[in-house]
Amino acid sequence: MNLQGSGADLERHRRCADRTIVDVVAHHGATWIKVVARNPNALLTSSLGDGEYGRRTILDQLQDMVECARCHPHLYKAPEVKVWTVLPVCKPLREIIQTVGAEVLNQEDVLAVSDEATEAVDDEGVGVDECTENFTALKLHEVPADAVLNLDVSSMIAYASALTNGRCHFRFRENVLTEQAENERRNPVRPALDELFSSRKLVCCQSAFDDFSTIVKVMAGPCESEAAQRLFERLEVVPDSPSERATALALRGKIRKRSKVIFGTGDRLKAVTVTANSGFLRAAKAQSVDFVAYVHESRALTEAKEVNATPI
């Protein structure tokens, strides 16, 4: 972006670079809340210019939050900025706050946020969410109904795998496959993917499609090949077109060129990437880049391995 453009652009990036304090982050990041204990009448007076010289008003603080929110999108949208006051807010102050792009929270909104916080504590440390400590991943119910889903290779493999299609009652020679079969019996992946895929548009980039097609030809059994073909019929294959922030990631550790292309293409499309590759997400987060993703457990193609496996 050309920062030598308008003064508004320069001011926005200056604000984004400054320290901005958010008192409460609600709705999984979609709402930022400023908590104010001052008397609303005093807030109105200072907002109208009758405050102490040089002292930042509530409008200054909210405007900073609004500008900062635009620089830190949640699900590709700027978080909503809201303010909560201890005492009721008069109509003039409410209208002034709205002019800077913020809103005043109603009492029912505060109760909803409180309920959400309680639910979040109750849900801590369950299943796949354990791998999201260092990065942000969506839960199934958090994926927007109109979201476009970008499938990576691991998600397509998991969808077609014999393990996720009712054939997980085996003990394989390979320990990793036996472990995946045990995990599938405890926590089936396919039902969640079916619910996720049911009414949403599915896309994958050309690189992911080519890689998965090769893997299916080389490693898949007949049933897995059929499952892959059914998935292909729903998929729209798009050209590789990674976003600038994905391209800028340094190649090290779990950051591989192909993963940058796959996740970056989803990022440019403003899609939710469906993946089992939590390592890439964690490594990207370490470089201060968050991708919008739904994470599931890893599953391999196992049908060809069943001939040497022990049924259980």
Automatic annotation (TrEMBL):
<dbReference type="InterPro" id="IPR041076">
    <property type="entry name" value="DUF5614"/>
</dbReference>
<protein>
    <recommendedName>
        <fullName>DUF1308 domain-containing protein</fullName>
    </recommendedName>
</protein>
<comment type="similarity">
    <text>Belongs to the UPF0415 family.</text>
</comment>
<dbReference type="Pfam" id="PF07000">
    <property type="entry name" value="DUF1308"/>
</dbReference>
<feature type="domain" description="DUF5614">
    <location>
        <begin position="20"/>
        <end position="123"/>
    </location>
</feature>
<dbReference type="Pfam" id="PF18474">
    <property type="entry name" value="DUF5614"/>
</dbReference>
<feature type="domain" description="DUF1308">
    <location>
        <begin position="149"/>
        <end position="310"/>
    </location>
</feature>
<dbReference type="InterPro" id="IPR010733">
    <property type="entry name" value="DUF1308"/>
</dbReference>
